[in-house]
Specification:
By secondary structure, the protein is of the alpha/beta class. It has a single domain (15-149), classed as Rossmann fold, CATH 3.40.50. It is built from four helices and nine strands; from the N terminus they run βαβαβαββαββββ. It has helices at residues 15-32, 48-55, 74-77, 108-118, and strands at residues 9-13, 38-44, 62-69, 84-86, 96-104, 124-132, 145-149, 155-156, 172-175. It has a six-stranded mixed sheet, with helices on both faces. A three-stranded antiparallel sheet has the order 1-9-8. Helix 1 crosses helix 2. It binds 1-O-pyrophosphono-5-O-phosphono-alpha-D-ribofuranose. 1-O-pyrophosphono-5-O-phosphono-alpha-D-ribofuranose (PRP) is lined by residues 43, 45-46, 71, 101-109, 161.
Amino acid sequence: MGEQGESAFKILFTEEQIKNKIIELGMQITRDYKGENLTVIGILKGAFIFAADLIRQINIPVAVDFIAVSSYGSATKSSGEVKIIKDLDISVKGRHLLLVEDIVDTGLTLKYLLENLKSREPASIKTCVLLDKPQARKVEVPIDYRGFTVDNVFVVGYGLDYDQKYRNLPYIAYLE
Ligand code: PRP
């Protein structure tokens, strides 16, 4: 068993698979936003590693900011209540926004943030999601750039936690 108890994990996506996918996503985003004022917004905490790797595959000038929302327990999750606990530092009015998320489960976090950010009058908003879990969806949200689709399993690693642990795993795994 490894130091982090990894033997209980089944690897879903290796470090190399993730890297190759992000190269692809970065190429698409570079192509689509050439000549535009792109701002990438990472949703903390889960997306911090994905956002950091993604922006290094985007080959145009890009502004980066982060927003943190409250993490809710399963009981309150269904209410759709999301609270911003760290807002953006920069004004996004007139800018092209790309919201970067590690995973979309119910869709409630992304839906809330899309509505909130739209009210700030950006030029456009799109979403880039590393993991899409469609079976868990409660509300429809647009996913413009998608890394992988996953079954309804509990995934950890590459930014995703279980009880705040395992964000530092370089791969994505699920707990058996
Ligand atoms: C996770 C993930 C997304 C959200 C997705 O964040 O990073 O932000 O849940 O779930 P949803 O589609 O059902 O809204 P979490 O609340 O665990 O906080 P964290 O990013 O700080 O780990």
